[in-house]
Amino acid sequence: MRSACAVLLLTLSGCGYAPVVSNSLLGRNRILVEPFAEDTPVGLSADLTAAMALRLASQGITLCVSPANAEATLSGRIVSAATVRSPTSGVGSSVAAYDMRVRIEAWLHDKGDKELWHTAVDVAESFLPAALPTEITSPWDGQLAATEANRRRALRRLAETAAQQLSDRLAIANATTRPGA
């Protein structure tokens, strides 16, 4: 088994493939992750910030809580957010669905506030409203709370998707940028 893994590793490294894991971002080891700002209050900031911090920590990046200890700061802004009727709930459909669409910009700055990296991602996630009331239930029997719970679950999924895309882009930038550049 060990020899098979070694052969596979040597084969892949000969073809130009290489692991993209690093315990630093663009030469910086200690990163402060600031809460993402929201131009329009959506309720995504806390989940997105936590998901980004978790992704960075799982990649071996040292997270800082104090700007004084950080070598770089990751920050971002949710610049637009909209909830629209989903195209999958077409005309005449008995089940309505909604899409939350957001545009997120993120930056990595060094201690001197020099921009090291910048990107923007567009992410969308669908959710369903609560079931329509029946003869047995009244329209107010938790329908609004159930719809909001579905929206919150969609926000958490959206935060995970956005964090994945942002961390992938950071990993690519990290792998393709020369240290000290």
Topology, element by element:
Layout: H1 2-14, E1 30-33, E2 37-38, H2 45-58, E3 62-64, E4 72-85, E5 98-110, E6 115-127, H3 143-176
Parallel strand pairs: 1-3, 1-4, 2-4
Antiparallel strand pairs: 4-5, 5-6
Helix pairs in contact: 2-3
What does this entry look like structurally?
- The chain is of the alpha/beta class and 181 residues long.
- Mean pLDDT is 82; it is low at 6-10.
- Strands 1, 2, 3, 4, 5 and 6 form a 6-stranded mixed sheet that branches.
- The protein is elongated and about 55 Å long.
- The longest helix is centred in the C-terminal third of the chain and has 34 residues, at 143-176.
- It has helices spanning 2-14, 45-58, 143-176; strands at residues 30-33, 37-38, 62-64, 72-85, 98-110, 115-127.
- It has a single domain (21-176), classed as Lipoprotein like domain (Double Stranded RNA Binding Domain, 2-Layer Sandwich), CATH 3.30.160.150.
Give a short overview.
Helix content is 34%, strand content 27%. It has one domain: Double Stranded RNA Binding Domain.
Structural class: alpha/beta
Number of strands: 6
Low-confidence residue ranges: 6-10
Which CATH architecture would you pick? 2-Layer Sandwich
> Tell me, what's the shape?
elongated
For the structure shown, list the relevant keywords.
single chain; 181 residues; alpha/beta; Double Stranded RNA Binding Domain; six-stranded mixed β-sheet; 3 helices; 34% helix; 27% strand
